[in-house]
Amino acid sequence: MDAYPEDYVVHNLPFILLSGLEADAPDDAGSSGPEYPLLLEKGPRIYSDFPPLSGPTAEELRRNLLEEDASGASWDNRESTRTRYSGIGYKIKSVGRSYRLPPRKADPPPLSPPTSPTGEQQNDLHTAPSFVLHSPISPLTPSSPTFPDGLLTPLWVTKHQNLVPAAVINFFPFCLDPNMSSLRDNQLKIEINGLKKEWSDSGYKTRFVVVLLSEESTVGYDKEETEERITSIRRATSLDPKSILLLPPDATSAELDEFTRSLLTMLQPLVVEYYRDLSKHARRKRNRSAVPPPTAPPTSGTSQTLSLQGWNVRYEFKLGIFAEFRQEIDAALRNYESAYETLFGQDVFENIAGWNPRFNDARLLSDALAIRIIRCLLWTGQTRTAVRSWVNHRTRSRDIINRRGKGTRNYGWEAWEARWSMAMAQLIRQANIPGISGNRSSQEGDEDEYLIFVPPEKTTPPSEALCPWELLHHEGYWLYRSAKHAMTRRTLAQQIPDEDRIPPGQLPASQIASKSYMYDTYLAPEPHIEAPQPGSTGFDHSQQILNALRAALEQFARRKQIRKTESISLEIAEEYMRVGSWVEAYETLRPLWPTLTWRQAGWWPLMEKFGWALRECALQMQDSETTLRVDWELMNRGWHYSIHQSLRDLPITELKPSVALKAEDVISSLTATFVFEKSEGNVGEPLMGQLAITSFGQKSSDPIRLSEVKVVFEGCLRPLRLQSDQNVNADTTTPCAISSLTLREPTSADSTTLLSPSNGLTALVGMGDLAIGPAQTKVFNLTSVPREAGDSRVASITLLIENERFDLACGITDLTACDSFWWQQTTNGIARRRVGKDRDTCRCKIMPKPPKIRITTPNIRATYYTNERAVIEVGIHNEEDEAADVSAEVRLFGHPDSAAQILWLDEEGEAVTPGSQDSSPIEGVRHFAKRSIGVMDRSSRQQLMLLLTDTLEPSTHELQITCVYNLVSDFQTPIIATHRLALSIIRPFEANYDFLPRLHPGPWPDFFTMDDNLVQDETTPKPRGLQQRWCLNSKVVSFALEPLVIEKIKLVLLSLGGGAVCNIGSEVVDNPHALEIRPEELRESSFILEVQKLVLGDRRPTALNLALEIQWHRIGTDAAASSADSATVTTTTLPIPRFVMPVGEPRVLASALASEAISGLIHLDYTLENPSMHFLTFNLAMEASEHFAFSGPKTAVVQLVPLSRHTVRYNLLASKRGLWIQPQLNVVDTYFNKALRVQPTEEMRSDKKGILIWVDADD
Hints:
Residues 99-124, 283-305 are annotated as: Disordered. Helices cover 26% and strands 28% of the residues. By secondary structure, it is an alpha+beta fold. The strands form 13 sheets. Strands 8, 10, 13, 14, 16, 19, 20 and 23 form an 8-stranded mixed β-sheet that branches. Helix 11 (329-343) runs antiparallel to helix 12, helix 12 runs antiparallel to helix 13 and helix 15 packs antiparallel against helix 18.
């Protein structure tokens, strides 16, 4: 908007004048003086004899007030940019003590001199005529630039924005000296009344405010006296109480800030009232609906005064300006829109001829109105309406210029288009719309918050169709549009004929007049400046275009619009190239070339244009590397390419340039693929692949002669090097050629040695024709012999060009981007077929050479058992066609903490040290065995015996038997034969256990009986404590999958605690004749345990840890079993839960004995034991039952001395035979009041209710 008068388009703020402080430095505010001097020279002058205030307080206060000047801030969010005052913004100016106001009325026109003596006498007799005087800039004043039919001049806005203040703040010193206060107060009253009178006589309604700054004084500050003095001054000067303020002495910076905020807040209603009064005055004039009379009528016969509609445009414009001064944006918008519509009505713009200078004045006013309307719409958030207003003004301007003006097919219209787009961009920037405007200082660095356009308002009806251009886009869009119109403007300017480019001083007047009707120079230079003659200076189109493009580029880049950023960068570079700034053009294009998105998008015309521009810049900068990079892509179809002659226009340098390209980042003129014939190969067998090199060069380009092609593999394959064979005639015309190359080992004649990056293997070398013509494909059949097994894939293919001027390498790493084909020679010529639909053609799995040594395990069993000593026979058969050197390895896989171990049978019993076998730390010595077999002749056989031991826990192991051998004829290729088998180890038996009490037949110790053995001298101490008998009942179940023979079951005492000894009897089997146990069959047996304390007084509980040892062997009926397996006895140990005997607790044992004399009579004995050191008393009560009759005490009391026992007998006679009877004897320890449970012994049972006794049936 720089081309427009600033006051026409600037956002209006209330004008505040500071009088009495130091004046501002001279600026351009008086620039309107030379344009119209009457505004400053003949107006009333406000003058005061008081010197301006000085000192730190006055300076700081002045600085605080000037900092609140909001004329340079964004007009949308001004509150966020200031930290002090939060009201409406002001324009503040400090002028010292004197100030000149513009005149309100113009001088009357001069009278014409009398033409006769009679006329002179008549003038003397009559009074001079009276004139209706108006403003110096009114269309009614003859001396006005708008007289007689002009609409408006920017000077009117200048008058109210820069010259006539809404309020003046007068600063005066306030004396605190009591001796001088009365005199100084009187001086203040006189000065204030004088200034008020001068402002009142000026005719302006400027609000008058007085601020008194207290002077420094040694006398104390008396608040009441000061208030009285202020009241006296206010009354004497007729000031409002809010219009006179006092700043106390020694005010701090914080107090000055607060005083500044209070002062500006107090001014707000005053200035709003001032501009409201001006609005009322303008509205009254508009409502008269009449054209005011001019000071003097127009003198020309063709001139006419401004129409009523023209006056309405003036009034509406003024009302809008005053509303904007008040910051009432909605009201200002209504007035501006009304003025705009009236201006484009039938009675204003349509009545102005295109040749009339008033036509351009009307255009200027219409632009100013449109700018103000758009600004108000953006202020209120109506972004879509703002865009529509911009488009509407452009459309209406085009229409009226085509109809009434000089048309739009000229540089003047394009200059306006560029300026109109630039104005929109500047308005968006000033609006500070979040995400759209560029000056986002509060959100700096947050790139994700930038928007491309403002989304539609929520109030938009869904049925309303939205066009993309109706949404407000970011300012980069408008800046780029301005640049495009500036380019069109330059194109049209270059079409100006040479005769119209001659300066006016060198042309006759007739030609000057004709040019004025031909070219539109509205806010644009004359033709001789727009398109100057050679050697002359004129308008710099390129600078205007570059400024707009650079600004647009910043906005597009900020929003990550990459493709548009690249396009604008190309246009900037082309503009630099146009003016010869090759360095700037090169620095613009060079960083973008490697990552240009057009390359992946396939926008080839743009790529060609970009590459050609970069090549020109590289040639100018003598950048050989960039020239080679551009030429390799061969984009320009109108250029005869020869990659070998790319640097012919550049000087030869001492250091030969070297360029490395990655095919995935460029559009390479050559591409290469490598395809394996098969997805799998074998070590030592030929493996075939095809290397196809295809040229995509222009048809007119020269062949590309490669020096070398390198193919590198990942994995076990050796790299390949194809070198150019200079001894063959190059074929560059055949569309496709297939050749088979022989690969050899590298020799010392080779210049370099290529190594594989993964395994360091040296490359195989081949020679062939590497000259590739345009659109030609050359296929090379390559055969190599793998020496190692593993997965392999093509890592990269590198195409090399080496000559005396440069070195160029193009690496291809992504070989899956292109389709894979297999080329072959047929009877109809060379044909290709598609491969790779079911496999990756760039990968090949190299399998080991198929072994012909067979490994067998003839005696392997399906299941093995824990603790079993398993002997495994391994047979090795050499079925190779020749002798082989063989070594065998055995690995046992399973749980790493397993105690199982594998070893050779003949090494059993030998100590195996960790270093004696080649085992890994993970495997351990016990899980690995190795043996060298030596050379085995053809069809020979070896037998090895393995031993698997220490299988203590059930588990599943995997046994791997490996034979590593080399044929005698080929010691470089190891061959591996592997045989895997699973070993399932399970537990053969499981058992359940019951501990049952028994009655010991031996007598207990007696205090009244002396043992004769006590007096004997015994070297070995004999147990003399209490004795108890127990029975361990075991039920062993077979979990084996086959019948097993149990040789023996033995109860083993592992440990015994509590100072006791234990004797364990032999097994008593329920069925002693059943030695064989079948799967899931039960074997029940029992063991008698006799436990005796060593010391009689030891009553600690006794803990027994026992185990059950089962000795068994297999039945030798299995075909796979050997006689050794069936004869080997295996011992399986089953753990038994720990058993604790409470020796010190009293108990009751029941034993039953059938009577021999009377059938059905049972003698039931209850034995009460007191192993403690207490005298115990037991109450006995036998319950009656309908199932039997008993003889014996119904109730009884038994007293037991310490370490004694007593037996109570009952005779039972059952009512029926062949059933279980359940006598109930209740035994209660009277001392502890504890009921003792009766425990059964032999041939008895028990349940929850008590013991059960079997009564035999009658014979």
